[in-house]
Structures are given as C-alpha cells and as structure tokens.
Amino acid sequence: MLTTHPFDDDKLREECGVFGIWGADSASAIVALGLHALQHRGQEAAGMTSWDGRAFHSHRAMGHVAGNFDRDDVIRALAGRAAIGHVRYSTTGETALRNVQPLFAELASGGFAVAHNGNISNAMRLRAELNRRGSIFQSTSDTEVIIHLVATSSYRTLLDRFIDALKQVEGAYSLVCLTAEGMIACRDPLGIRPLVMGRLGESYIFASETVALDMVGATYLRTVEPGELIEVSDQGIRSLRPFAPRRPKPCIFEHIYFSRPDSVIDGHSVYNVRKRIGAELAKESPVDADLIVPVPDSGVPAAIGYAQQSGIPFELGIIRSHYVGRTFIQPGDQVRHLGVKLKHNANSALIHGKNIVLVDDSIVRGTTSLKIVQMMREAGAREVHMRIASPPTRHSCFYGVDTPERAKLLAAQMSVAEMNHFIRADSLAFVSIEGLYRAIGEEQRDPAEPQHCDACFTGDYPTSLTDHDDAERRNQLGLVEDRVA
After folding, report:
1. What is the mean pLDDT of residues 55-70?
2. Residues 6+ apart with CB under 8 A from 457
3. Which of 2, 303, 428, 477 has the most crowded CB, counting CB atoms within 10 A?
4. What is the helix (H) or strand (E) element at residue 374, kind and residue range?
5. What is the DSSP secondary structure assignment for residue 341, as one 8-state letter?
6. Pick from 96-100, 180-184, 376-380: least confident
C-alpha cells in the first residue's frame, strides 16, 4: 500500500504557491526556478501557463517541479515573455490533473489564466448559483468559480469584470492572472495569504514568498498590499485599490511554519521570528535540562532561540534523512513502525542518560509527538520535555490550509495536561498567544481586532464562513429529519 510517511501525516499542510513574470526572455524557465523555491508550499502538483504574443501555452502535471519542468522540451513549448506558475497542495477539490493550476479559459474577451493561493469560503454557494445560471464547471477547484464570475459579469472591460468577480467572493486569495493584455496580481482585502513583488531587469515578478525572488536573482520591491490589485503590461504598471479599506489580518502561521525560514514577511526575517518564538517559549516555560533538541527541520530555529535564551546547549538529537520521499511502501504493522526511522532517527550516543527538551512547531493530531517522545525514550533519555513554538491548534482553517476537522485536532479535545499524558512526555507547554505576538514584533494582541489571522488558535475567524455555515445548517436539518422520521 502506498501511503504518506507517518511523520508527514501530523502536520498542517502548506497551502499553495504562485509565481508570475511579465516581460522577460525565457519567462517559463524563470517561473520554473521560482516554483522550485516555493515547492514546500505544495507538493502534489505543479503547472504553468505562458503567453507568446499570439497564443497561450500550458503544461500541468502531478508531482514536483523537478521532473516535470526541468526538461528542455517542456520549457521550449512554454514560449513567450510572460508566464505564471503554481505549486499545489489540495485544500479544496480532489487530487486530479483537472484541478492543477493555473486554470485557463477562453473568455469572450480572450484567454484568461489564474493561479490562486488561498481558499474561497463561499465557493460552494457561488458554484450552485452559477450552475443554476448555466455555467459548466471543468474542475472541482474553488478557483474555477472566479473564472465563471468573470465570464458572466456584465461589466465591459476584463479588469472591471475581474474586480466585479472578486467583490462576490469571501475568504482568502492571492492571485496571479495572465491575459493577452497583461498580468494581474492581487490580494484579498485582509491580506490573509502572502504575495510580494520584485524586479528582474525590466521585468516584474510576483511570488508567494521573497525566497522565490532570491532564487531567480530578482530584487524585492515590496509586498502587494491587502486589497491591492496591480496590473502590469507593456504600457507600464499601475496599482488599484477597488475594495473598501480594512485592517489587515495576514496569516500568523506563515511565521511559524509555512514560509521558508530564508523568506522575509512584512520586513521580518522568518528565521529570526522563529528564534524569537523559541526565546519567548524559554521565558514562559523553562526546564532544567541537559540538551535542547529540535524536531527537524521546522523546529530548528525555535530550538536555537530556546537554547540561546535558556543557556542550555543546542544539539541535533534527532537526525533526519533528506533522501526519503513523502511516500513509501508499508506492507504491515511491524514495517510501518520501523518505517518511522526512515526519516527521523535518534542520535542515541547524545541522548542516552540526558534530560532533554524537544522543540517542535506545532501539535496537530499528536501522533508525531507521541512517536518522537517514544523514540527519545528508546534512545535512553532520562526525561523528555516537549515545548511547542505555537499556541494549541484548536480550530480548523478555512483560508487555504489543509487542517483536519476539529474533532481530529488533539488540542480541541484535550487540555494541555491531557495532551501531555497522551504523548507520554514528562511535561508539555506551548508558547502563549501573547508570546507569539511579541515574537512577531507586536507589543500585544488586540482582542477586539487582532492584527493577524490567528483563528486556528483562537477561533476568531476574520471573514464569513458561508459554505461551512451552510453545511452546519444542513447537518442540523438532517439530524432533525432523522428524529422526525
């Protein structure tokens, strides 16, 4: 049976990554490099659409960028000086080629391709209405709703039709779109999902993270502002703000886990923020221990911060193999148990007889933490204390992060003491929400209107959740009908 590696099962899934460039020779080759830098944001599939001044060209494939977009014949076929690309982890819609982005359609005004990072929280309701009006969908992706809203808008210009479409959607989106006239990049009014702009020679680039600009040698210009729409064409660049201004709420988990540590978010080094989270954690939940051990790789910066603040040595007590893919063969329970060590193995000579502090970025289902604590015990650790560089994840995300349903989130079902008993650690502590905000550079969290989207920790969702609420009402009606029957 082919299955996901057990250490990958217990993580929040990256959403997606987008990259686009206008006005560059070999645009598709540059996009392919940019997508390599964003591979961590989506590892199920990758796609690209280019424009050569006469026609659009697309290539979409399941799997990683490498192996699909490092072939000369593929890059040559994606001709033109403008291209957009996407790496995907499915948060809505099935895992199938028809859902791989960019999605492309021939509209009355011409070709239109769109790459989307985020999640439209009223997509199902919009889709139902569009179906009633005669729209025929080719995918199960929420992104296709945007295309149909553009196609059916009564406004005259494509840009106005696009703005009209966006004003009907709820939720989170960072979009890069390609037309024959130019490239459009935009963020939702709250700026939940990230998007940055850069320059390479005379070309403009848009990407989910600054590390993608570094990869292609581009200069970072600025963040695309929440609610901003930027249009780039051969005539130049212009910025529009078609939405009423709102207080931004960028996703706080980008700082904790999603973004690469070598990226910069709103002027803050992700790596440095993660170290500061670890330092806050050391202040809030100190331990008398011999070693600070990160859970690789995402726990490393926070563990360094914890070690520096506490004065306890930082050591690689768990060694990760970087030559194991995300999947492997599991023919039986015994091999499944042994398979854990394919990716992570205890550094027993270092761990034996020591009191250790394990530092990880989050606990989702708790299964990974349980296995790692057990691994440390088997390696001879005297005491195993777990410290988590985020608050307890008690709520699902509806903005483009694939989280389990709330019933499967360990922190939604148990107290911290109960979670500690479940993972069999000597102690367990999470950084506080206040400590997390301090690490990001905020003096404190504004409870009336938080500066970030932190709904996965607090349940304070910044937008309407139309589809979720509709589903809840249907479930309640179903229960009522069952009782009546």
Report:
1. 95
2. 252, 390, 391, 392, 393, 394, 395, 433
3. 303
4. helix 367-378
5. G
6. 96-100
Residue whose pair of structure tokens reads 């042994």 in the numeric block: 338
The contacts of residue 316 (CB under 8 Å, 6+ apart) are: 293, 294, 296, 347, 350
- Do the beta carbons of residue 380 and residue 356 sit within 8 Å? no
Beta strand 344-346 pairing with 318-320: antiparallel
Q: How many CA atoms lie within 13 A of 338 on its CB side?
A: 7
Mean pLDDT computed over 469-483: 72
Residues whose CB falls within 8 Å of the CB of residue 317, separated by 6 or more in sequence, listed in order: 291, 293, 346, 347, 350, 351, 356, 376, 379
Side-chain-facing half-sphere of 334: CA atoms under 13 Å: 0
Collapse the DSSP code of 473 into the 3-class scheme (helix H, G, I; strand E, B; otherwise coil) and give the result. helix
pLDDT digits (tens, 9 = 90+) for 100-139: 999 999 999 999 999 999 999 999 999 999 999 999 999 9
Is 186 one of the catalytic residues?
Answer: no
Alpha helical stretches, state H, 82-185: 123-132, 143-152, 158-166
Place of tokens 């280019």: 50
Show the tokens assigned to 79.
């001709």
**Domain covering 269-458, topology:** Rossmann fold (3.40.50)
Compute, in degrees rounded to 10, the torsion defined by CA atoms 409, 411, 413, 416: 150
Exposed, middle or buried by CB within 10 Å (0-12, 13-18, 19+), for 75? Answer: buried
CATH number of 9-250: 3.60.20.10
Distance (Å, whole) CA 250 – CA 442:
13
